[in-house]
Amino acid sequence: MAPKYKLTYFNARGRGELTRLIFAAAGVEFEDVRLGHGEWGPLKETSPMGQMPLLEVDGQVICQSGAIFRYAAKETGLSGAAGWEEAQVDMFVSGIDDLQTKLWEVRFERDEAKKEEKKTGLATFVPNFLGNYEKLCGSDGHLVGTSLTYADLAFFNGMHDILNDRPDALEKYPKLAKVVESVKDNKGVAAYIAERPETRM
Amino acid sequence: MAPKYKLTYFDVRSRGEPTRLIFAAAGVEYEDVRLSFEQWPPIKPTTPMGGLPMLEVDGKTLSQSMSIARFVAKETGLDGKNNLERALADAFVDEIHEPLAAKIPTLLAFTTDEKAKEDLAKEVDQLIAEKLGKCERNSGSVGHLVGNSLLWCDLVFYNIASYIEAYKPGTLQNYPKLAKVYATVKANPRIAKWLERPAGQYGV
């Protein structure tokens, strides 16, 4: 029987990876469709909002990466305890989305002068962001609560490029470093990462 | 004893209004703290992530506007009746709220430079056309974006739509399903009461 969930996205991490990590961490099977550049065009017209990622479940299509990963987290029990904990998880993930958006803005800026300006902005934003998160982070190797939530996965995913460039980037942030280790230690995540295609983004 | 909610935001609609609308629709009382921009700098370092809005509940603090709105929607039963409905509601919120929630009031009230205003207007026009198009295509036709009763996504949409109508009146006429959602929210008795209050000090 086909898996209940079918994720469609580019062959990239981008806005699809968090959902993949959620399913992987929870050990939930999903169809991981990765489209090549030519393949998206014809599908675009039939998609709800002309964008990917898309998640198909029970004949329904959900779009918007946030709606998708939140849904996946709920379905797999990785969204945190209902109520306040869930809201805190949501909060951390929203902040990480801000970080990723800023990182991508720099990456995709073609104008050299603007790019330098944005890089300078990042040099302030990132330490501020990490400082805030370190302060708010739990001490058990999880941002919120005492077991893995998708906030941990989002942080791990959001820090990918930064940690790639500077593996010691979390030296001054021991609680956050512990979160990254917890995620790497998760069997589902480790197996998924070992197999996933290497992509630039 | 019911939880005590305290919402702190600037005296504008923008990113705080969706939560205020949710409280209003649910008939739930809360402390609606509104700061002027001058009051902000000393308060900034005391916030979890250096930004507003923030919500305090029973001594704990939450930030990020849509995390707050989503939480209050859940607490008041306005988030959707199952995970799928919640996801569909989320999709509308994710599409419509940012960046227009800040860009339209900035254009209407906080940009003075003529060239900057022109550039921002062009950007806003494009975003409005793109986003209303997508939302119209996916909206339900009974006066709700998702399902057949008021959900928080209708209120998040209403906040942006009221900015759009202030900026370019009549825009919604081109989007009949969305116009119906807008009218349905406006006609909700608790929302209608909320909308009677005077505008904040900045007029947006």
Any descriptors?
heterodimer, A: 201 residues, alpha+beta, 4-stranded mixed sheet, 9 helices, 57% helix, B: 204 residues, 4 strands
Structural overview:
- The complex is a heterodimer of chains A (201) and B (204).
- With 201 residues, chain A is α+β, with helices and mostly antiparallel strands.
- Chain A has 9 helices and 4 strands; from the N terminus they run βαβαββααααααα.
- Chain A has helices at 17-26, 37-44, 65-75, 84-108, 112-136, 150-158, 160-165, 174-185, 187-195, and strands at residues 5-10, 31-35, 54-57, 60-63.
- Chain A has a 4-stranded mixed sheet with strand order 2-1-3-4.
- The longest helix of chain A has 25 residues, at 84-108.
- In chain B, 53% of the residues lie in helices and 9% in strands.
- In chain B, β1, α1 and β2 form a beta-alpha-beta unit.
- The longest helix of chain B is centred in the middle third of the chain and has 25 residues, at 114-138.
- Chains A and B meet through β4, α3, α4 and α5 of A and β4, α3, α4 and α6 of B.
Low-confidence stretches of chain A: none
User: What's the helical proportion of residues of chain B?
Assistant: 40-55%
User: What oligomeric arrangement do these chains adopt?
Assistant: heterodimer
Kindly state the mean pLDDT of chain A as a whole number? 95
Low-confidence stretches of chain B at least 5 residues in length (pLDDT < 50)? none
Summarize the structure.
The complex is a heterodimer of chains A (201) and B (204). Chain A has nine helices and four strands.
Question: Secondary-structure map with pairings?
Answer:
The complex is a heterodimer of chains A (201) and B (204).
Chain A: E1 5-10, H1 17-26, E2 31-35, H2 37-44, E3 54-57, E4 60-63, H3 65-75, H4 84-108, H5 112-136, H6 150-158, H7 160-165, H8 174-185, H9 187-195
Parallel strand pairs in A: 1-2
Antiparallel strand pairs in A: 1-3, 3-4
Helix pairs in contact in A: 1-3, 1-6, 1-9, 4-5, 4-6, 6-8
Chain B: E1 5-10, H1 17-26, E2 31-35, H2 40-43, E3 54-57, E4 60-63, H3 65-75, H4 83-96, H5 100-109, H6 114-138, H7 152-167, H8 176-187, H9 189-195
Parallel strand pairs in B: 1-2
Antiparallel strand pairs in B: 1-3, 3-4
Helix pairs in contact in B: 1-3, 1-7, 1-9, 4-7, 5-6, 5-7, 7-8
